[in-house]
Amino acid sequence: MSDILLSFILGLVQGLTEFLPISSSAHLLFPSLIFGSNDLGLYFDISVHAGTLAAVIYYFKNEIFLMSKSIFLTDNSNENSNLLLYLVIATIPIVIFGFLFKDFISQRIFSIESIAISNLVFASILLLAFLKNKEKKTLINITLLSALFIGLFQCFALIPGASRSGTAITAGLLIGLSLKDASKFAFLLAIPTILGALTLLALDLNNETVTFDFFNLSIGFLTSMIFAFLTIKIFLKVIEKIGMIPFVAYRVLLGIFLLII
Predict the structure, then answer these.
(1) Which structural domain range is residue 137 located in?
(2) What is the mean pLDDT of residues 211-232?
(3) In this predicted structure, what is the pLDDT of residue 154?
């Protein structure tokens, strides 16, 4: 497989899966684990993550503006300032765990079997959270403790195959958020989380000599950005109609497939 085609495929996979509860990290590993494709390196990892970051920032630009504006208001008890605070609180756990286990994570000690099992386990937890979710709380009802709970639960996303958005949505459903608001909070939470991941990746650049191809980086960035934006837009529009069952079914089938290949 040529590096140009691989750049497009990996950018596509990153864009489609970063915000779906199906684990982008697991899918990004498939080309190398199954087909033996080349590793395009840290610069490429940074470029595709930057693409999804640009997409989510652009999609939520109005919310981000209001939260930023609330910082300069004398009344710090408004909805936007509270949401900003809760996003910060929810980000802290994964930053701490990501930093503590950075070296272990960078070694990528996992297998297709472990990814399959992770998919099955976290798909089951997501299904239970979805089926048991009876409350329809909105983002206004989030508290400091519930934000911390979501942040702690999101730390499971450090396990390949768990899914960052999937764990955050699961936690949101467990505290009683509606499916759409749980998804929205998970997507907003992706902004500081991806920024943290990019920071850790950038720090790794200082520890090793890496090369990059600007054309491949551009393909990865643009592809991931475009498809991430479309994924967010479509997902939030249809999620209350289709629910989590299709994603759970996909992850179960994926997990079974990976176990038997």
Answers:
(1) 3-260
(2) 90
(3) 94
Domain count, the chain: 1
Q: CB atoms < 10 A from the CB of 79, how many?
A: 13
Which has the minimum average pLDDT: 185-189, 205-209, 236-240?
Answer: 205-209
pLDDT tens per residue, range 103-134: 666 656 677 788 889 999 999 999 999 999 98
Two tokens, residue 198: 């990019």
- The DSSP result for the chain, as a single string, is --HHHHHHHHHHHHHHHTTTTT-HHHHHHHHHHHS-PPP--HHHHHHHHHHHHHHHHHHTHHHHHHHHHHTT-S-TTSHHHHHHHHHHHHHHHHHHHHHHTHHHHHTT---HHHHHHHHHHHHHHHHHHHHH----B-GGG--HHHHHHHHHHHGGGGSTTS-HHHHHHHHHHHTTB-HHHHHHHHHHHHHHHHHHHHHHHHHHHTTS-----HHHHHHHHHHHHHHHHHHHHHHHHHHHHH-SHHHHHHHHHHHHHHHH-
Is the pLDDT at 42 greater than 80? The verdict is no
